[in-house]
């Protein structure tokens, strides 16, 4: 089973990728801010009326929500600016995926990764992300795939990643000991 597709990343795809990388941090900072301010309020204002404390806590919650929204807007603006200023992100590339791994070919070169090099695969509403490091991924926008290609990609991911998830990297034989297509 194999799949080959020519793709290009849109500004929205790049924003979604950036959001995917920081999604947890976008929520953690405002939540900690809210919790810390609420705790300080409760500790140092014991004599204050309960209703007034609740009003302050509600204000802190609103401020935390506004901080989250501001973070999202800054992220979106910065990602679009980076996309528009980087020619490599705007150019087309061809992904060839088979049982041996993934090969990305574009005007800026070729990148090949065996399935053992893929450390994580994620699917969102808009794309598949196949991570070959903690900060780099092959991006496959779903808007460019038909239903058959999505099914083929899921089958390749299932056969080559999910099936091996019970095996850790140290359990996998070295390149000399195994054929990459069977790993």
Describe the structure.
- With 183 residues, the chain is α+β, with helices and mostly antiparallel strands.
- The chain contains 4 helices and 7 strands, in the order E-H-H-H-E-E-E-E-E-E-H.
- The strands form 2 sheets. It has a 4-stranded antiparallel beta sheet, with helices on one face. Strands 5-6-7 form a 3-stranded antiparallel beta sheet, covered by helices on one side.
- Strand 2 and strand 3 form a beta hairpin.
- The longest helix has 36 residues.
- It is elongated.
- The two termini are 15 Å apart.
- The helicity comes to 40-55%
**Multimerization state:** single chain
Kindly estimate the percentage of residues that lie in beta strands according to DSSP.
Answer: 15-25%
CA-based gyration radius:
22 Å
How would a textbook summarize the main sheet? 4 strands, antiparallel
- Contiguous uncertain segments of 5+ residues: 168-183
Helix and strand run: EHHHEEEEEEH
Number of strands: 7
Averaging pLDDT over every residue, what do you get?
83
Number of helices: 4
End-to-end Cα distance, whole Å, is 15 Å
Structural class: alpha+beta
- Please give the order of strands in the largest beta sheet: 1-2-3-4
Shape summary: elongated
């Amino acid at each position: 089973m194999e799949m080959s597709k020519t793709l290009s990343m849109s500004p929205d795809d790049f924003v979604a990728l950036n959001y995917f990388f920081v999604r947890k941090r976008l929520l953690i900072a405002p939540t900690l801010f809210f919790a810390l301010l609420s705790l300080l309020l409760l500790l140092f204002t014991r004599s204050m009326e309960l209703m007034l404390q609740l009003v302050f806590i509600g204000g802190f919650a609103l401020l935390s929500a506004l901080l989250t929204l501001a973070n999202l807007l800054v992220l979106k603006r910065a990602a679009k600016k980076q996309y528009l200023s980087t020619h490599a992100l705007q150019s087309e590339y061809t992904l060839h995926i088979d049982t041996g791994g993934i090969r990305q070919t574009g005007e800026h070169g070729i990148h090949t990764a065996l399935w053992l090099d893929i450390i994580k695969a994620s699917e969102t509403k808009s794309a598949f992300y196949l991570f070959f490091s903690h900060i780099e991924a092959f991006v496959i926008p779903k808007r460019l795939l038909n239903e058959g290609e999505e099914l083929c990609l899921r089958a390749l991911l299932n056969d080559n990643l999910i099936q091996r998830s019970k095996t850790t990297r140290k359990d996998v034989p070295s390149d000399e000991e195994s054929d990459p297509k069977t790993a």
